[in-house]
Structures are given as structure tokens and as C-alpha cells.
Amino acid sequence: MPIDPIALTADLIRCPSVTPIEGGALQLLDRLLSDAGFETWRVDREGTPNLYARWGNRGANKSFGFNGHTDVVPVGDEAAWTVDPFGAEIRDGIMYGRGATDMKSGVAAFAAAAIDFVTDTPPDGAVILAITGDEEGPSTDGTIALLDWMQTQGEAMTACLVGEPTCPETMGEMIKVGRRGSLTSHFTVTGKQGHAAYPHRAINPLPAMARLVDRLASHELDQGSDHFDPSTLAVVTIDTGNPATNVIPAVCKASANVRFNDLHTSESVINWMQSEAGDVAQEFGVQIDVQTRVSGESFLTPPGALSDLVSAAVQAETGITPELSTTGGTSDARFVKNHCPVVEFGLVGKTMHQVDECVPIEQITQLKSIYTRILTDFFA
Predict the structure, then answer these.
(1) Phi and psi (nearest 5°) for 310?
(2) How far from the centroid of its chain's Cα atoms is residue 91's Cα?
(3) What residues are labeled active site?
(4) Cα distances (Å, whole numbers) of residue 134 to 12, 17, 43
(5) β-pairing verdict for 342-344 and 159-162
(6) H helices within 157-301, ranges in order?
(7) DSSP assignment of 31-92, as one string?
(8) Residue 205's CB: how many other CB atoms inside 10 A?
(9) Dihedral angle sign, alpha carbons of residues 164, 71, 159, 342
């Protein structure tokens, strides 16, 4: 019997797998894939649950991989939901629940497609599923752990598709062939506390911080590149923690998030921000400390065989020729790209992370058909 991706999506939604809790989702998939003849391994690391499954031989000359995650973000205000967030209720052809869009439906679709494909037409090669429970969290021991384990075990993918939601409004309209890099920097400006009536006896960190964030935010990083929109910098917080109006505080803190394209590296962006901080510190006579966390570098899978394969399958099943895009935030494709060529394609993502997150059930079936066609054409 073919695997019903709608029923599988519902079963996964009913697993309360809010990061970092596994919630039974990977256990469910482990049983399903094992029963279908896949070899499976739990690749947990530092308490993070991960699942690796392979049909076919290790080291096959040709292997296609799917990557995705079963962890979900918190439900938020449960009273604001009109349904049980983990009930997988279907109303008027729409399934509701946390993870319905991001991305239990995608995992269900590629798991169902993979099982039916190897059962009906066993390929000359391997089909691989690398599924993590840590995409919505720190992402340090999820897909990275799977890829590290694969390297030690001699496991490899020739190409990979990440099943994240990629379509803004209409099913089939967009494939992600790259992503901007992302980093967040935290700035601490230290001056000297004093009485507001005697500012000459203090060193006020606030004007220095104001100058710094203005220089950062008003600077044009670039005007975009061949495949990417312009890089952006957003100042996301400025804080002194000072409740007194007659006190000049000693410290002011701020944070900024940068999304950068392939004209930059994280190192070049960090060097620029540290240079700006150094100039402002010297101008105002303060100390400025800069601490940065890099979430990922920008990357591009050049349009070619893999994007053509996925585009053809999407066009055949939807009648829409998808746009090749690098917009949006980050995804685990930023890790997979170091292993093999990778693109992303999935459902319409309008309701992901929202209250009453939902997906039209016809899209789940359609997505399984697209993934099945990708596998068929890849191994043909």
C-alpha cells in the first residue's frame, strides 16, 4: 500500500516535538523507514535527536538525499489557537497544527515518496534521509552532527534536497538555490558613570552608541549581486538598563543582525564593524567591545543539473516554472552545501510559526508527487 503523506503528516503533528524535545516524531519515522527496508541509525549528539536512514548500499555511485527537521517552535499563546496545536485537525481541506507547514508536511512527503519509490522501482543507487530534531534551535548538533557522522562512516549524498517551505504564495513558484549569510553582533560601549548635572565629570556611552549604530545602519553594504538581493543590517536592540534620569550610565549595549550576500564573508563584515567601533571609541573616549555569532555563510548552488532536475519535476506536477531564488532567512542547506550540491523546495510557507499554522492537504499530496518525480528522473 502506498504511504499516505496526509496521514503521516497528521501523525507527526501529534508528536509534540518542540525543540529540543524529540516528542516521538523520529521514533515514528524510524519504525516506518525500517519496516520499508531502510537501514536506520539514531545519530544523537549532546542530547539532540537525529535520524539517518539509507536504502541501498553505502558508497553507491549515485545517491539522492533529503534533509529536513521534525522539531517545531513553541505554540506561543495556546489560548489564541482555534484548534489543538498538536491535534492535526482537518477543516475544509486544511490541516492545522504546529509544524503543519514548517516542516512536518515536507518530511512526511519526502519519506512517503522515498518509501514508495524504492518499493515500486528499486533504483541502482541509494536513497538517503537525514532528519534532525534541532533546526529551530541552536542547530549546532543537528544536521551538522549528521554530516559529521556521515563523514566518519563513509556515507555520502550525490545531491540533496532540503524540504523547507520555499513558496511565498503559490505552490511551485520558487526553489531556493542559495541563502544569504547571517551573523549577529553585540556591542558594549563602556564610559564612566556620573551625575547628569555634571556631564563633564562622566563619560557618557550613549552618544557613542548612537553614533556607532547610525554609522552601521546608514552604511550601504552593497547593491546586490547576480543571484542575491542587497545585504542588510538591522539594529535590533539598544539598552542601558538605566531607570534614573539624573544618572549618566556607565554602559550601553546594542545588537545588530546582518544578512549578507556572496560579495561578503562573515570575516569581512566583522572586520568592517570592528573598524567602525574602533573609530567611534577613539572619537568619544570610550571602550567598545564587539562579540559576534555567525549563523552561516552565504552560498549559492549554481543553476545547473540539480536545479534543472527539480524545476522540471515542479513544472510537470504544477504547471508552474519556478523562480530560482536566494531570498529568505537561513536553513540547514547552509551546512549541507559543504557536503554536496543542495537546493530547497517545499510548500507555501505563509503560516509557518504562526498561531493556527496550517497547510492545504492537497499540497501535501502534490509535494509527494513532486518528490517522487525528482527521484524517478534522478535515477533514470
Answers:
(1) -70, -40
(2) 28
(3) 71, 135
(4) 15, 10, 12
(5) parallel
(6) 205-218, 266-284
(7) HHHHHTT-EEEE--BTTB-EEEEEES-TT-SSEEEEEEE--B-----GGG-SS-TTS--EET
(8) 26
(9) positive
Neighbours of 279 (CB within 10 A): 14
Residue ranges in the chain assigned as alpha helix (H) = 5-13, 25-35, 104-120, 143-153, 205-218, 266-284, 305-318, 333-336, 361-379
Residues 6+ apart with CB under 8 A from 154: 58, 59
Residue whose C-alpha cell is 523520529: 26
* Residue 325 CB neighbour total at 10 angstroms: 20
Phi, psi (deg, nearest 5) at residue 335: -90, -40
What is the 8-class DSSP label of residue 173?
Answer: S
In 3D space, the residue among 377, 301, 343, 369 whose CA is nearest the CA of residue 116 turns out to be 369
**Segment 105-152, tens digit of pLDDT:** 999 999 999 999 999 999 999 999 999 999 998 889 999 999 999 999
Residue 47's contacts (CB-CB under 8 Å, 6 or more residues apart) are: 20, 141
Give percent above pLDDT 70 in the chain. Answer: 100
pTM, whole model, 2 decimals?
0.91
d(CA 170, CA 350) in angstroms, rounded, equals: 10
| Distance, CA of 46 to CA of 32 (rounded, Å) | 25
The residues, ordered by sequence, that sit 6+ positions from 40 with a Cβ below 8 Å of its Cβ are 30, 33, 34, 51, 52, 53
Report the pLDDT averaged over residues 12-38. Answer: 97
Query: From CA 266, how far away is CA 219, in angstroms rounded?
Result: 17
